[in-house]
Write a structure and sequence with these properties.
Elements (H helix, E strand, L loop, with lengths): L1 H4 L2 H16 L5 H28 L3 E5 L8 E5 L1 H28 L5 H20 L3 H20 L4 H32 L4 H14 L3 H18 L9 H7 L2 H27 L1 H6 L2 H22 L3 H22 L2 H30 L13 H4 L1 H15 L5 H14 L5 H26 L16 H19 L1 H15 L1
Antiparallel strand pairs: 1-2
Length: 497
Amino acid sequence: MMDLIRNFPAISILLCLFAGIISSGFHGKPAKYINLVLILTVTALSACTLGYTLHTGEAFVYVVGKFSAPWGNELRAGVLEAAMALFFCVIMLLSICGGVKKLVGEVAEEKRFLYYVLTDLLLSSLLALVYTNDLFTAYVFVEINTIAACGLIMIRQNGRTVEAAARYMIMSLLGSGLLLLGICMLYDITGHLLMSNIRESVIQIAASGAYPIPLLVTIALMSVGLAIKSALFPFHTWLPDAYGYSTVSSAAMLSSLVSKGYLFLLIKIIYRVIGFEIFHDSKIINVLFIFGLMGMIFGSLSAIKENDVRRMISFSSVAQIGYIYMGIGLGTKAAMIASVFHILSHAATKSMLFIAAIGLTDVSGGSRKFQDLTGAAYRHKIAGVTFTAGALSMVGIPMFSGFISKLLFAQAAVANQGKMLPALIVLAVSTILNAIYFMKTVIRIYTPVEEKGEHITCRQEKLYALTCICFIVLNVILGVLSQPIVDWIQAGLDMFA
């Protein structure tokens, strides 16, 4: 049984790829059910992999096709990879379930099967980015991820989604190009594509003092490439339209999963390819730190100015991505733990906010303007409660995951004397700004108003209500049972090293 579990990462990726192929031959409900069964199956496989790595206390490597390096591809699974894969599966399942009813009106029936094909491909690419131990394979699935995400944005095929998809594609290709150029340079320097082999060569090169400039350029190219793809400020201009005008399920998945897959890949590169110490000495972290702080402020200011609830949530993502890069830029193990935890926290919270927002807009005549959302929480109680829980988490109220994230970032900042002051100041200012636009929205939806529009109860939308409850429970679990999760993250980062 133990030997069988070692195959689960590869089986999960292949199942997603084959499910996408099979779904393309079906229309309507069969494609939906294939997608549902797939996600549940991969979730179970990921849970087994996590249990195995926790039990053994060590990571394992699976050689695809049984061909040794440099001809074969490797997958590597430790505590952190398995936990991230499991979390991605859960978030995707909840995002699809929360928006499945709305999908009927958003996507034409003859194209609905394509939606599930794209989600299958998206999940396969995310799992590959999590598990891969090979840089070229990582790049291939980065492109698959880009294609799937672009398709999910423009599947509604109206003017705004096509324009948003075009912007996303341009910026994403720029990021992919820089990443590929960095990989090529690294291959030229080291002669390897497997992460473990590259790291050994990089350590030797750094110790000998050879190729200092090419190595620095390589680190910069890969960092900037992934920063562009994950929408770090100022490369975020595509994000508000992409998240704001796509289908609700697409917005939930794009905000919570796609950018997080790139961020996780960057963390893997820092630890498993370049080496944390070498990356720190390159001073690239200082650049990421500065732009992370800028993203925290400018993303929040842009959110305050928005009058569209979905675009407000989208700009909030820019600020939250800034948090993660700030943690990376602090350059300590504690800060990296905070960044990884915030990946989980933000993924769980942001998808919840998008799902809740669609419920509020449905009882407000379909309008996303703040003035039209007045009293919406009374007309759709579960959506109001869910949005409020997500807002409280984003602000950093205890009992929710966002509080733990901010606490971990603050503790990491205090431990870094050189960057403590700017980190704490921006963290405090960003928290205040978060409170302004999120609490403004909560007050708006709970402002009593003369009855207007339809009322929706939990009995009318049972699946939606169940999804909202699951999102709230997940967020509270991350907030209340944070210590075991932090321990898993620490163990996973130790396995990286």
